[in-house]
Amino acid sequence: MVSIAQDLNRSVQLAMDDMAAEAEEAESEDSETEQSVDTVKKDNNLSVEQSGEKSEENVSEDDVVQNESIDDRMETETSNVSHTPSLEGYSAQETEYARVLLMTGMVDSASSIIYISHYPAGSPVADGYEDSIKFLDPTTVIMGEYGYSGSITYASHGDGNITIYPMPSHWHQEDKSPEGYRTYAQEILDEAETVYVEPGNNRDIINIIDSVIFDYYD
């Protein structure tokens, strides 16, 4: 009986030892789990902080690049302005002629001589026919070096606008009577077009003025 009791006590003791060992092992696993969780949290926090630092660095770098781009653009614009030639020293009339030539292209650009004529208001549309319809405004005629070089007849309004008259190079209408000239002259006035003359690029204007001779024969 004593032997049985001893065996039973040993079995109970072994069972209790096993339970204690299992409990200790469980506590150890819980501790390791907590440490792992803490490590993950620390890693996540570190990653977030590093990400924030990188974002700030990227934003800072973008700001620097943008500021440099703005500075470069301003420097370029300032340089362009400082290198734009001035029209000072060129007459207002020749500047207007050059702008009209540049905008309309109605006179051959190869012409080295540009002939200029001015007519007062009330001048006949059909030159040489006093009974013809009259221009209401003073007009300017710009002609190329040769007859085939083209011409343009216009009235300047002093505000950047001009009225261009579709004048023929020769009067070849079928009706050569005074009435025929009056009719054709009226058609020219009716078909006139008022346009705005763009200021253009100063360099182009100067190139035209410097490359031609303006010959006036009013």
TrEMBL record:
Residues 1-12 have a biased composition (Polar residues). It comes from the Bacteria. Residues 1-86 are annotated as: Disordered. Residues 19-35 have a biased composition (Acidic residues). This is Uncharacterized protein. It comes from Alkalibacterium putridalgicola. The lineage of its organism: Bacteria, Bacillati, Bacillota, Bacilli, Lactobacillales.
